[in-house]
Amino acid sequence: MLSIAWAPLYAHSLPANHRFPMLKYELLPEQLLREGIVPASAFFQPVPPPAADIRRVHAADYYHRLQAGQLTRQQERATGFPWSPELVLRETTILGGTLACARRAWASGGVALNIAGGTHHAFRDRGEGFCLLNDQAAAAAWLLAWPERPVQRVLIIDLDVHQGNGTAAIFEHEPRVFTFSMHGARNYPHRKERSDLDLPLPDGTDDAAYLGLLRETLPRLLDEHQPDFVFYLAGVDVLATDKLGHLGLSRDGCRQRDAYVLGLCHQQQLPVVVCMGGGYSPRILDIVEAHANTFRVAADLWG
Hints:
The chain is an alpha/beta fold and 303 residues long. The chain contains twelve helices and eight strands.
């Protein structure tokens, strides 16, 4: 059975002007339950983790200032969110969800999914682009440090339309974590970091070109890096309908992307954590359906 992290504050703790794209966090669980893709028992409510688990990848001073509401105006503007205690609770809970998913997937050898997460623009000492704390980085660091049965090698597959700049910078000098980002070349962030492998894509890249490049690349990465664990950032801002993405994938192309990535993980018996990442199509239906496809694929493979 799938294990899914979800908390009501994913959607309800943000200012009103940010709530439209965040409706997916409310509608997606409803869709999954309505279709019977997963039972209600698959969901668990995450909680913020101990501060030590966050400070593995974030500077103590930055985390203290974030908690205390002491970010400068410039730092706050870079995150895109006005600071509030509710926002900090939301961000730490999302991170806790991905961390709990990692524990569950590692214990079961299967898959766990966070309805939110994929906050890959958060750096060690700062937040950017609606990301304050880097959930997949923190969970990967926890797995590497777990004294009972540590993971040896992690592969982060970041297929959000934006480069995972914060994740790349955090693990720049960590050979046990391989960061792979396939993203829009001319999209945010304008100053890219260096992942272990970056594949920048031209505007308008369609299903055939996107899936062809992914199929050429991912089996080689799995063979060369030999990961014990995979994090997958399944952003749906790659859709042609996305107002920020500038790529040209159809909803079915996005589903084929998920099926290919998760199919390889299942075939090679790799535990995997999936986070939803971005999605900014004008119609909320396009966003929710594309995200729901990720869960449909996971349920077909591991259900």
